[in-house]
From TrEMBL:
<comment type="similarity">
    <text>Belongs to the short-chain dehydrogenases/reductases (SDR) family.</text>
</comment>
<dbReference type="InterPro" id="IPR050259">
    <property type="entry name" value="SDR"/>
</dbReference>
<protein>
    <submittedName>
        <fullName>3-oxoacyl-ACP reductase</fullName>
    </submittedName>
</protein>
<dbReference type="InterPro" id="IPR036291">
    <property type="entry name" value="NAD(P)-bd_dom_sf"/>
</dbReference>
<dbReference type="InterPro" id="IPR002347">
    <property type="entry name" value="SDR_fam"/>
</dbReference>
<dbReference type="Pfam" id="PF13561">
    <property type="entry name" value="adh_short_C2"/>
</dbReference>
């Protein structure tokens, strides 16, 4: 299927590895020019080298996208589209797990800033231009915990749920929806990423079990009996960015191998 997005410009956050890289890769395969962003320059440069093999323009900006200075660097990168992106994929690493009794105000502010306010700032900077041009796709990578909260991920549950509520309203405004601008959230479950491995290592260290045993036990809780692959997540993202997905907006698309047992 031709997704109808060849030649467009995309911004993808957290794109040096994991789910962000999967999204950037799938978009580049569709002929999309991509500005990839992450904090670590070395890993980001390696990702850019790999993505350029797909034949589109790839610009790498090693900044902290949660800061105003970082976002200004993205808008002004040489050869980029300024703020005139056709596609924006917001993605920031989740805050650490823990017991809510131990979190201070600064912990909450940091979580909300990265996982709620930063995506909102990116939406605010780009969405009106999308509406004027008659095409726009914004994808927020959140978490399956928005649907099924996990007690030790309270910082993530709170911040990402706030973003979800905001998107539910703004995505349905007539100025955007009637001008072919969609905003959707992608909710990943357990994917084979460094973050998942880090979480399992923490569990292994805490329980004394081998990390392989932790991984197998986690897989058994998933009807698909496996972890997801970043590339298949990226392909889902690319479809939501497609011309064919123009009638989908304000949605929360759960990709978790069937782990969430609810009807809605």
């Amino acid at each position: 299927m031709d997704l109808g997005i060849k030649g467009k410009w995309a911004l993808v956050g957290g794109a040096s590895k994991g789910l962000g890289f999967g999204c950037a890769q799938s978009l580049a395969r569709e002929g999309v020019n991509v500005v990839i962003v992450a904090r670590g320059a070395e890993a980001l440069d390696a990702a850019a080298t790999e993505l350029r093999k797909l034949g589109t323009t790839i610009l790498a900006v090693a900044v902290d996208i949660t800061t105003e200075q970082g976002r200004e660097a993205i808008w002004s990168v040489a050869g980029g589209p300024g703020k005139n992106f056709d596609i924006v994929v917001t993605n920031a690493g989740g805050p650490p797990p823990g017991d809510f009794r131990n979190w201070e105000r600064d912990d909450w502010i940091k979580a909300v800033d990265a996982n709620m306010l930063t995506p909102i700032e990116l939406i605010k900077a780009t969405v009106d231009g999308m509406a004027e041009r008659g095409f726009g796709r914004i994808i927020n990578i959140t978490s399956s915990a928005v649907k099924a909260p996990i007690d030790i991920l309270g910082l993530s549950n709170g911040a990402r749920s706030g973003l979800t509520g905001f998107v539910a309203g703004v995505a349905r405004t007539q100025k955007l929806a009637a001008n072919n601008v969609t905003i959707n959230n992608l909710l990943p479950g357990a994917y084979d990423t460094d973050r998942l491995k880090g979480t399992m290592k923490g569990a292994a260290d805490k329980t004394g079990q081998p990390i392989e045993a932790i991984a197998e036990a986690r897989k058994r809780t998933i009807p698909a009996q496996r972890f997801g692959h970043p590339q298949e997540f990226g392909d889902t993202c690319a479809f939501l960015c497609s011309a064919q997905a123009g009638y989908m907006t304000g949605q929360n698309i759960l990709t978790d191998g069937g782990a969430y047992a609810g009807t809605f």
